[in-house]
């Protein structure tokens, strides 16, 4: 395990619910704004999945993939035209990183 990550989770009481633990870990480190943003993104992904009759668990996976692609956008040779639109839609529509 990465040493910095093991330090970050040291003394954190995991409860076994991945979603709740992720949010609690962020709050444990006084990153409430990131926890709140993460929760809003997850809720929006579920809403979009339901709107388009897709399993919400796939929406979570799709956002993780789109988030990764968006973070790598300056390194990619080709970016699909829909990437920014899909990324912003799953993030909740706010254009923070563009």
From TrEMBL:
Keywords: Hydrolase
Top-level taxonomic group: Bacteria
Keyword Hydrolase: yes
Key word Hydrolase present: yes
MF-aspect GO terms: hydrolase activity
SUPFAM superfamilies: HD-domain/PDEase-like
Name of protein: Hydrolase (HAD superfamily) protein
């Amino acid at each position: 395990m990465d040493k910095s990550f093991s330090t970050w989770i040291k003394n954190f009481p995991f409860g076994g619910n991945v979603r709740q633990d992720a949010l609690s870990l962020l709050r444990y480190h006084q990153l409430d704004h990131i926890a709140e943003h993460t929760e809003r993104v997850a809720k929006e992904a579920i809403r979009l999945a339901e709107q388009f009759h897709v399993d919400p668990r796939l929406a979570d996976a799709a956002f993780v993939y789109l988030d990764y692609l968006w973070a790598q956008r300056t390194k990619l040779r080709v970016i699909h035209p829909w990437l920014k639109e899909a990324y912003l839609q799953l993030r909740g529509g706010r254009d923070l990183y563009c």
